[in-house]
Amino acid sequence: MSEVYAARRERLRERCAAGGSASALVSRPANVRYLAGAAPQGAVLLLGRAEDLLLCGRPLGDEQGEGRPDEGLRVQLLDTSGGDPAVAGADLVAAQGADSLAVEEHDLTVARHRALGSVAPRLRLTDLGGAVEQLRLVKDEEEISCLRIGSEIADQALGELLESILVGRTERHLALELERRLVDHGADGPAFPTSVGTGPNSGRGGHRPSDRRVEEGDFLSVCLGASYRGYRCEIGRTFVIGTSPADWQIELYDLVFAAQRAGREALTPGAAYRDIDRAARHVLDSAGYADGLAPLMGHGLGLEIDEDPQLAPAAMGKLDACVPVTVEPGVHIPGRGGVRIDDTLVVRPEADGGPELLTITTKELLAL
């Protein structure tokens, strides 16, 4: 991986040089992870003219099973505890005689930005913007492999839960069990707080599990994900508790399934982000569910669970191959419940078989 990290840093260096800066300070944790490997919390990466340096405020350790920093990168531990690695980086750049430093303004607080200017008042601070996020957008096959393994883990955890007795158990209990199973199967941990919704809570995006117990006839919606070597996947499914679903449950499920399928089929290289959203949203709009829909029908993922691209009505941009995204339409009817179906996929050209589905748990309306 050392060559991969070095190549990523070189691409960023080229972007910095094009913007007129020979040095850059990367502070956003996911961006540090992308360019330098796993690093202690609060570490920053300094791209210097002479060498690149990982500045850490605390000693290296096992970063939640995500690995170690790039072996080809020099690591420097701050001499004093409680110091700010970003401020130390700016001081180093100024001492080397540089006249400018690109920083991630979207990650820095106002106070931290002022501290950088204070320690190096002659250093011109420029905005690196989303340069690293743009590099992260298209994944290499090693990154996709991590997402694929994480998706397999999430599928396993969900499949095992479906084989257990669910009636009478609380949403909170089921969520905790799912997260335990993720770790049991090799995940670093959950990719995000697991959501379990039953009955009137089902189908609500981002629902926080409550003490409501599963009852016969309920919709049960689950959204979970595994983090594996830092890469995060997502899967969402909806089931019915009992022997047979009601007619309204079948109709609603079929509608959301059709919307999700339309979104998945639209995932082709060159497709506009907004067109993916439109493909899924149109199905729900046409059935009279325009009000109350989520602001987007999907998003990118990787080292963070919510990355670019945003598959939303006003999103600008077009899909590239090897970009992992979710497609996650849902409908919630207040007081009754609802349906959400969510998959992690990788955009692939038709010549390679079209979008690669990573989360493969069945999307049939199962009665559990």
From TrEMBL:
Domain Creatinase N-terminal: 8-138
Keywords for this protein: Aminopeptidase, Hydrolase, Protease
Domain Peptidase M24: 146-348
InterPro entries linked: Creatin/AminoP/Spt16_N (IPR029149), Creatinase/aminopeptidase-like (IPR036005), Creatinase_N (IPR000587), Pept_M24 (IPR000994), Peptidase_M24B (IPR050659)
Gene Ontology molecular-function annotations: aminopeptidase activity
Official protein name in the record: Aminopeptidase P family protein
Pfam families associated with the record: Creatinase_N, Peptidase_M24
Entry superkingdom: Bacteria
Region (Disordered): 187-212
PANTHER family, alphabetized: AMINOPEPTIDASE, CYTOPLASMIC PEPTIDASE PEPQ-RELATED
